Here is the input.
Amino acid sequence: MTDPTGLIAYACKDGNAVGIAVPINFVLHGGSSQSDVNRMIGAIENSWSGKFGNFNVKAVVMQVFSSNESVNTVHVIDGYSLNGSFSRVKNNQHGLWFTRPSRPGGLDYPHEAGHLMGLPDFSTGQTVMNNLYTSGKPDKWEIQQAINNAVSSCSCGK
Ligand SMILES: [Zn+2]
Here is the structure.
């Protein structure tokens, strides 16, 4: 169920209706807790759900409790990044996320979730994938890219 890029996300598009599902195993470290995880999941689902262009998107994070090759793994670290760098994602599927977000409005997690969907940083525009000045919302092109990247989870195609 994984694709060769290591990307693990699922999308189903039926007309303008789009469902995106991202399975994540959150591994808690130090003083981090499930309430931090809930806050991260809420931020992601809130940012990535809505109307973008013609797309009507419902995004969900599926929290899973074991690591295997078909889920993303995110290590949740209590506090700030010690070296000042942001929460991050490597190889589209391994995250190191801090409970104290660096970006304005706590938008680290929706941005990092975009990387789990295989999206790169975009320095132009102020969409969710802008690595510094994210608005916290994707645009229709980012939704389309997420659909194109994801494993199609329904027979209606991409
Ligand atoms: Zn980024």
